[in-house]
Each structure stands twice: as structure tokens, then as C-alpha cells.
Amino acid sequence: MFSDIEIAQKNEMAPIADVAKKIGIDENCLDFYGKYKAKITMPELRKFQKKVLDPKNRGKLILTTAVTPTPAGEGKSTVSIGLGDGLNKIGKKAVIALREPSLGPCFGIKGGACGGGYAQIVPMEEINLHFTGDIHAISIANNLIAALIDNHIQQGNALHLDPRTIIWKRCVDLNDRALRNITIGLGGRTDGVPREDHFVISVASELMAIVCLSVSISDLKKRIDNITICQTYDKRAVRFGELKCTGAIAALLKDAIRPNLVQTLEKNPVFVHGGPFANIAQGTNSINATYSALACGDYVVTEAGFAADLGAEKFMDIKCRTAGLSPDVVVIVATVRALKMHGGVAKADLSTPDTDSLRKGFENLAVHIENISKFGVPSVVAINKFVTDTEEEIELLKKLCAEKGSKAVLCEGWGKGGEGMTDLAHAVVEIAESGKSKFHYLYESHLSLADKVRVIATEIYRAKSVEFPPSVLKKLREYEERGFKELPVCIAKTQNSISHDPKLIGAPKDYVFPVRDCQLYSGAGFVVVLAGDIMTMPGLPKLPAALNIDVDDDGKISGLF
Amino acid sequence: MFSDIEIAQKNEMAPIADVAKKIGIDENCLDFYGKYKAKITMPELRKFQKKVLDPKNRGKLILTTAVTPTPAGEGKSTVSIGLGDGLNKIGKKAVIALREPSLGPCFGIKGGACGGGYAQIVPMEEINLHFTGDIHAISIANNLIAALIDNHIQQGNALHLDPRTIIWKRCVDLNDRALRNITIGLGGRTDGVPREDHFVISVASELMAIVCLSVSISDLKKRIDNITICQTYDKRAVRFGELKCTGAIAALLKDAIRPNLVQTLEKNPVFVHGGPFANIAQGTNSINATYSALACGDYVVTEAGFAADLGAEKFMDIKCRTAGLSPDVVVIVATVRALKMHGGVAKADLSTPDTDSLRKGFENLAVHIENISKFGVPSVVAINKFVTDTEEEIELLKKLCAEKGSKAVLCEGWGKGGEGMTDLAHAVVEIAESGKSKFHYLYESHLSLADKVRVIATEIYRAKSVEFPPSVLKKLREYEERGFKELPVCIAKTQNSISHDPKLIGAPKDYVFPVRDCQLYSGAGFVVVLAGDIMTMPGLPKLPAALNIDVDDDGKISGLF
């Protein structure tokens, strides 16, 4: 048994120029970052964008999502990558589009985010560590915005910015709980104006959301201009554009908006670009990466963060709406182990066969299957096989899915790569080509912001009603009065339950969904609505993954998972 | 008249592989970052290091330094780059080694740091903005160290770290005064342990100093292990190695320790790598970049930050000592304008001819000429020509230098590129080949730390004595008792005067040099001694350079100087 990084390091990569050639991208249309990573040039990106304007020129769009996460893990990226390889294995021109990993989880609890086993993207160490610098660029641009705001106040505060109202937060791409609540500007007259501040992890920043939604530098600049940074003392909302430094921020991000190309272990093309969180932001790779994949591939496998209630809903209602996309099929990843946990089994007992708990935990998957159908998109269940799964359990899971009208396919990408994913590939192709998808949004843009929340909470989260504090209703009305009524909403809640309460595993229903706060992301173009305690700055665990990572004198990294 | 960025953008660059070939570096020994930037591979770097072990295999080492900076500017980088081009112009194989620019000054007051006019390094926008990500890697590695320290305390504090004694600071590569003095860890039990903290600009961090002094990944790891992070409650000094995460930090820096290759406007090779401040740190590019240049070129032009009292002294006593280097000639950059300011002329009046003030301000240059001779190295003065300089002023300056036994050469690199630098190139070759350099350190390693400070302050800064607070003497003795007596000292003081007091322009003497504090950089391998108020986190000015910077839809940047 080899570890993920050992498998990745044993693999011989193809030069990325050769991988690009397979999907019709010439070497001249790549900016190389070493031999195995490249960014698409701006003219080529524009060519892709123009091509996909006509839906007939697009590949089929396959979205991978999952059941509600448990400590057992579900392996969504592994399935997405394996499915891409499986599609290529059965002779289809398939391209994968994924998010790029944050350094926070990498040194924290989760490790890397490049798939696993024989379904990985490579070079995994470089993708996991600095990659092509996109997240670093976003972090420094985010922090330059913050420094410019504080400097405006420091230098006389001509715009009368109220330091108590600054909602733009600094960021760092690490898990660093000590930066959650801080006071800055201490020390005296020359050292800034004292105020409360908060760092978020870079991937939870509005700027990450903006970069992933921007299709051009002008689009990026318009969004940066529109960021709401704070209020004046007389309560006027202030846009960042008023500080007249938008060009400098965009200059820092000029390369970060262009997609990166890498490969799977089986040398198939993967666009890895942008990594917004799936609670506070849209949770999916950049629009530019999806456009590029749709322009180059006949089939595009992409994924959305966390479970279908968070990532898939945002993919449909935020990303598809902004980008004019329309998914042809959704793959819902489930594992026997995760469903048993939803059925009440403790993690330590997961290896014991237990069809009763599986049957009970299936309720969670059933909700997600139903939810996807509410967008008019057909779905297929991918059973990501673990060595401890029994045949009886797998057969039961297939039967339960069939009873819900959904096909379930066993996947062995982790152990066998694309070869273990051909069944799912065939199933996905059949559905995608059937024309069954009648995609529509969950809610229309003209609904009030509060009603949009009500639709998502009742239809997707299965709450019986939504409780809004009066202060939130007032803020939502203010956003509407400022002209933001048409925006989609982005609900930030726990990923560990379909509800707002992480303890409610399985399929909670008949509860009241308690909204806590809201925030306008006028740059990204959505309204964040918070329910429960949302982590925008994770912490490190007692034994962080950083303890295991090492590098030898040749630069070879070990202990990265 | 074109701006620097316009000149740079009109220039057609050679592929960096062709530039590398000119100095015998094969394409296979480069990791490309686009077509015009590359990192040297680890095996090639080792080859260079092995070659320069024998001084006979090294090129001649030319150090560029300058008079004490004034608001008039002196153009040290412009002279260094122009000299490299001038040496190539007269048929010598010359390589340049420079520091990489910080983003702080770039968006603050100073602008970029790639030379000026027709003596520039390119691609200047990319070198000035993210370059190959070295500083981003250092920033995040620095902040991961901080997060791991705070997490150790959070998770039970097994080592009994005293939060009041943490000297490891977080960093960001920006001018952000509001982060100078902060409190972190507020909010409650799950949000860290409250304590005071401070951000420094990344280039002032000990980790930047470490990366620039590390010749291999093992060397890097040893230095990271040895970083003093804080004390325990019973006052034992704690090394970062005790947290057992050194491998993870080194993994983040595995590429950052390898030199970057770019080119001048005249397509000559330049290693641009590492950018430590010249007050709190050693102020010169990485040892690996200097080794690489010495292995590839017959002549190597490098520079040290600020004036000769700061940068050159540290170059000699810290970098040369650590790396076994020995400069053959020092170029001291001066301008008529800067010397007139040292003679008391206001900035607004600099265009008025004024030989009296020039004569008076020459005192500053005279001190630096004498100082360089104290290291046994011959020097030559480079008069960086400005359009307002009169012939009479230039002749007077040459005459004054001659009276000090120093040749002064007029330089027109800014206006004419290498063609305007051939006189200096000939002068430098003549001195370098003369064998006149009898380089020695200013002080021996066996002196006590306090005596090392006394030697520098009296010999170089021209103080009559040094005043140490008892607390500093105690700390210095403690460092000695812990085994750090042999380390060199790195004095952090203002760059605007030869003394500790920025108001004392010209050639101050007969004053008391007041030490304020000291700090052990046990990872980098020197003791920082602070005098006066040192800025380790600059602030943005009222009208930051960020106001002028823009980028168009093709990614072309404007307004960057």
C-alpha cells in the first residue's frame, strides 16, 4: 500500500504542453510555471469565452456533489478525478475543472486536496503548496485593500469612514484562530487608528469569490470598484472604488484570473483554478476555468464544495446564473461508511457490517437526490468503494437508490484509477446525452432577498420556517433599496448537517431555520446570509498535519496527504 | 521622455533560455516561470556551489554601495544594472546579482526597484509584483510558524511557553502601519490566547534573512530549527525546532531558496533573489544568487541596501563571513544632488548650481570612502549623472574624490544604458584585476558582542562612544552564555544618517551612539542591535503609489515606477 504522495511521486508526468495539445491548446497559448503547470494566455481565454457563448459549442457539464460530510470522508475529489479519467478511458474527450487547495487545511487537519489513491491530479505537492501563486495574489490584494482603507482614515479621513463599520477583513491562507478577533492600530498617532478587526482564511474572502466570478480584467475592476467596505459616520455605504486604487488591486490579480492547467495521473487535462469556500462564498472553481473546460472538452467534470445542500445549490443558483451555465447531470458521491454514520454508527464501529444503520442513514442521501431534482437536473449516485464495504451493504444501497428512482454505480477510482470508473462514465454519458436535463434555478431573481432565503431553507434544508432577527430584515431591505434586490443569496451555515445545526445528522426536518446575520458582497454579486456559527477562520488541531510534512535536500516532499 | 515602465515595455526581451545559454546554463537546468523568468534547478545550484569553493574559479566580485540616501535619490540599482551592461559592452562576461523588490514600497512611496531609464531589469512589472513567489512563500511560512506557536499555547501549552515573551512576529509584504501594534487571540476560549503582537513587513523578517543565507535545504532546516521564538515561564529560551514542524516550514520554502534568473534591457543575465532589509537584516541578495553569479560570470556586480555604513558593512561582516566571499572592488554611488542636500540645500533648490554646498556635502561621501578602505577593499566613486548637474559641479566632485585618493567616474546608464557606463566598467576592471583588494572583516569573531557594536559605531558611524542600557548588556551576555558569542552583529539604525539620528546629515561625529535594544536571530546567525526608532513596518503615505497603477484588459500594467 502506497500513500497518496508516494503514488503521485512514482507517476511519470507528461509535459503539460503535450496534455494541452490533446485538447487543442497550442503551446503558444500557455504561460508555463515549470514543465507541469501552465496558465492559459488571455487571448486563448477570450477565444474559449467566445466559443462557449453558443451552448451548441459547449461540452456536457457534469457536476459532482456529495452526501453531508462525516468524519468517515466521502472522496468527492477522488470520484471527480476518477470520473474524468474514466470518461477518457471509454474514449470520450473529457476535461476536469476543480478548485485549487488552500494552505490552511493542508497544514491543519485535512491535508491536501488533489484526490487520492490512483485518482489524483499532479504535481500534487506543488498544487497543494503554492501552485501558480493565485491564492497568494488574492491574499496580498485583499490586504492591500485593507491597508488602503486604514490609511485613508489615518491620513485625515476625507471620506468620513466610520472605523466601527469596516466590514472588509484582512486575510491569510492559514488556519490561525488567534487572528479571529484582534485589535489593530494601537501605539499612537503614527501607528494607525485603533479598531477591532478580524482575519479570515483567504479562501473565505470576498476577493476570492470575485476572482472566481470575473471573466475579464474589466469585469474584475468593476467588481472591485463595487465592493462595499464600510459606512461613513452618517451611515452612507462606501464602495472601494471611492478610494481610487482599483487599478492597483487589479494589477495584482491580472494573472490570478487566468485558469491553470495540470493533469491527472492518467495524463488527462484538468483546469484547477480558484478555491472559494462553499459556505460564505460560491464554493466552486472559477467561471473562466469552467468556460475553458467546456470549450475544450466534450464532457466536463466539475465539483462543488461540501454537500449538495451547500455547494450544489450555490453552483446552480449563483454560478450558473452568473455564467449562463446549465448542468446536464449531477453525480452524488456517497459511501457506505458515511451513510452508516448518518444512521448513527460511531466512527470506530464503521467496519462492522450494519445494513440497518445504512438504511437509516440513506435518508441523508435521499434528501440530496430529491434536492437535485428540484433544479430539473437528473442525477446518478456514485458509491465510492471502501475496502470494508460488504457486498450486502452495496447491494442494499443500490436498491435504496433505485427505489428513489436513482441509479447507483460502484466506483473504484481510488484503487484502480479510470479503469475503476468506466461504469460511472457510461452511466453519466447516457444521462448527459439523453437530453433529460431541464435545468432551472431554484428561485427567480425578482423574489425579495428574504424570500430567496425562505425558498432555500424550506425546499433544500427542509426547515418548516425561517426566523429572521428584525435587524437582518432591516439590512436586507436596505440592500434592496440600494438596488441589490436581484442578487442571489449565499447561505453560510454548517456543512455537517442539512440544517443549521451540526448535531442534526441524517435528514432533519420540521425545524426553524434561524438566520443570524447578513452581509452584502456587492463586488462578488451576492448577499451572504449567516445561520449558526460560521467558521471563516479555521483553527489548527492539537496535532496539525504540519508535524508530518518534510522535504529532503533534493526538494522531495513527504508526509503530505 | 518615456517613463521607466514604458521603456521596459517597448523593449523586446530574449527568451530567458537564451540569456542563460550565454553564461553556460543549459535549458534543462532551469525551471521556467513563463518565458522570461526561471529558477536554477537544485543540481545546477549544487554544481555552482562546488565550483566556487575554489576562489580561483570565481569571477571578480564588485559591490555597489552609496552615499547616505536623501530625498534626491542616488540611483544605486540603476548604476549596478548599468555597470553590468557596461562590462558586457566592453567584452567582459559580467553577471548581476540583486535583491528582489518588496510589494510594500511598490504601492507606497518608492515604487518599483528594477533600476531606471535605460538601465533596468525586465520583465519589470512581474519582478516588481509577484515575481516567482519567493516573498509570498516566505510570508506564509513565517505566518505558519506564528500560527503553530499560538496553537501550541492554545492546545495545552505543554512546553510552558510564556505568551508575553514571544518575539516571533507575523508579517505581510505591504506597508501597513495599522498592524504595527495589535492584540490577538481575543474572543474567548476557542479563539486563541490573548497577547500583544506586531506585524513586520516580510522583507524585515528573520525568515527572509534565513532564506538568503541558506545554501541548501538541510542548512535551511538547521536555521529554522535554531530560531529563538520565545521563553518559557521559567525563562528558558525556546527554539522553533522544539515544536517539531521544521519540515513543513522548509517544504514551503523549497523553491524560494533557489535563485531566479532574469535579464537587463540589454539582455544580460541577472540573478534576482531574496530581499532582506538593510537595517534589521543583512540587506543583500541571497548567498545562493551570489554563488551562482560568481560561478557563471568573470565579473559579478552586486549591491547592498542603503548607504555604505549599513549595507556595505553588513555585506562585509555578515554575508562575506557566512559565505566566505571577498569583494575585489567597491563602487560608491553618489549624485551631485544628494551631496548638495548633505551640504544643506533644500530639495526644491537642487537645480541651482552650488559648488559650496557640494563641497560641504562631500564630507558624507568622504566618510564612506574612508570606511570602505577600512575593509582593505579599493573603491571607485560612480557619479550618477542628472540632467541638472553642471560641468563645474562634476569637475569639483571628481577633484574632491581625487584628493581623497579615489577615482570618480561619470555614469550615464540611466540615459544611455551600458554605452553610458563603459568608463566605469573600465575603471572597475582595472582595479579588480590589480589585486589591490586585501579584504578583511572590520572585527574578529572572538570579540564580545558589545565590543563588536563599539567597533562598528566608532569606526564606521564615527561615534565617540556607545551607550548601552544595562538591560541590553545583560541580554548580550546571556546570548554569549548560550553560545552565540561568535556571531556577527547587525545594527538596525536609520538609513538617513551615518549616525543613529536621521536629522544628522553630512558627516556627524563626536556623538554618543545610543543602543536601545537587541534581539538574537539565532536562525539567521546574527545579533540585531537596535539604535533609535527602527521601522520594521512602514506606513503608506497620503498619496500612495497605488493611486497611479492600472492594468488594461490585455494585462498591460501602467503607472508602476
UniProtKB/TrEMBL annotation, chains A, B:
Its EC number is 6.3.4.3. The keyword Nucleotide-binding applies. Gene3D superfamilies: Domain 2, N(10)-formyltetrahydrofolate synthetase, Formyltetrahydrofolate synthetase, domain 3, P-loop containing nucleotide triphosphate hydrolases. Transmembrane segments: none annotated. It catalyses: (6S)-5,6,7,8-tetrahydrofolate + formate + ATP = (6R)-10-formyltetrahydrofolate + ADP + phosphate. One of its GO terms (molecular function) is ATP binding. It holds the Pfam family FTHFS. Keywords: ATP-binding, Ligase, Nucleotide-binding, One-carbon metabolism. ATP binds at residues 70-77. GO terms for biological process: tetrahydrofolate interconversion. Belongs to the formate--tetrahydrofolate ligase family. This is Formate--tetrahydrofolate ligase. It comes from Treponema berlinense.
